[in-house]
Amino acid sequence: MRAERVENRGEIAELIRKAEPLARAHPAGIQMESWWLLPFLETIAQRPLAIVIRDGNDLLALGFFERRRSSLAIRGLLKKRVMTFLSRGPSDFSDILLIPTAKPEEIARTFAGALRKIPRIDEIKLEQFPEPSAIARGLSDTLGFPLLDWVRVYSADLSVGYGALWQNAGRNARRDIHKKERKLLERFEITYDALREPGEAFLSEIVSLNRRRKDRRSPFLGERASFTLRMVRECQAAGRLLVFTMRANNRLISYRLGFARDGIFYDWNTSYDPELFDLSPGKVQLSHVLRWCVENGLSEFNFMRGDEDYKRVWSTGHTMNKALVFSLPTLRMRIASEWAKRRER
To answer: Between β-strands 300-305 and 264-272, what pairing exists: parallel, antiparallel or unpaired?
Structure first.
């Protein structure tokens, strides 16, 4: 068994395409498929690399990463060189992909050795391992660093039916949604829709809505916009895209954009018209989206990472994404350590 490091973007792109069956087979591999990773690689990835584990010529495992720089010490003059999963930031789930017959413990030992040999890296920060990950525990044990609880991932089991979800939401939530929806209906003609091929005009509406809201974290604005728009188009072409809209007098006032796979809807991005903040169009729409998902035979609504109140209201359970973070004994890290000690004196 041997590890190979690949740093050529073209070769990494080809490996992502070859890994497609492994991503589709992974229980949480929705954002490890090519329609997600390739747009990131080709738009905003800084210094990508891949690690490939082979037994002879047989592929056993792949991991896709990138190297970044972040401020470390001396008032930002010293930059820390960090290795993360490829698409860290917008991605909710990242993992190392294994063939079905691979033994995670053996792969972990070889992979850990490859990670330690990557040159010019001060810290390895692998976030968003889904629970469970076949290899995360093995990497943790081999490297001697603990897996950290990173962020909760809430979900709703749709098999219980919409009525049960509505009751589980609680009396206060139900009353608030009824009240806000009634007020919206008094002022507007409200319509709801589910789209699998929304088109370019709708993407322009989403961008405009996020601009009006002035949400700097929106993936449709700023440096991530090129990735997001391309990813959405690729996702649609792959048959994964599912978008829910809420309109008032035909004006978009709320949307939920996500991905559908294996009976699960992954609720990735949402926004609403800031002028209607007091009427909570997002909350009202979510109740209709959940009903639609139940009525159309989906088995799970995955809220993806984050601990927002509305997720706890509707969820029937949660998992915990993990992270593996450790520093390497490089000169930069030693200088930063000494600098920190001097500042504490």
So the answer is: parallel
Peptide bond into 132 cis (omega under 30): yes
CB of 62 closer than 8 Å to CB of 96: yes
- Give the Cα separation of 42 and 128 in Å (integer): 22
Q: Report the alpha-carbon distance of residue 236 to residue 240 in Å, rounded.
A: 6
Tokens representing 293 are: 């998902």
Are residues 137 and 208 part of one domain? no
Question: Per-residue pLDDT tens for 83-114?
Answer: 999 998 899 999 999 999 999 999 999 999 99
CA-CA distance, 291 to 273, in Å (whole number)? 22
Please state, in angstroms and rounded to a whole number, the distance separating the CA atoms of residues 219 and 237: 20
Residue 306 has pLDDT above 60, yes or no: yes
Q: What does residue 266 show for φ and ψ, rounded to 5 degrees?
A: -100, 110
Same-domain pairing of 162 and 253: yes
Q: What does the alpha-carbon distance between residue 288 and residue 193 come to, in Å, rounded to a whole number?
A: 10
Please count the CA atoms within 13 angstroms of the CA of 161 that sit on its side-chain side.
3
Picking from 246, 250, 242, 223, the residue whose alpha carbon sits closest to that of residue 302 is 242
Look up the domain containing 171 and give its range: 154-314
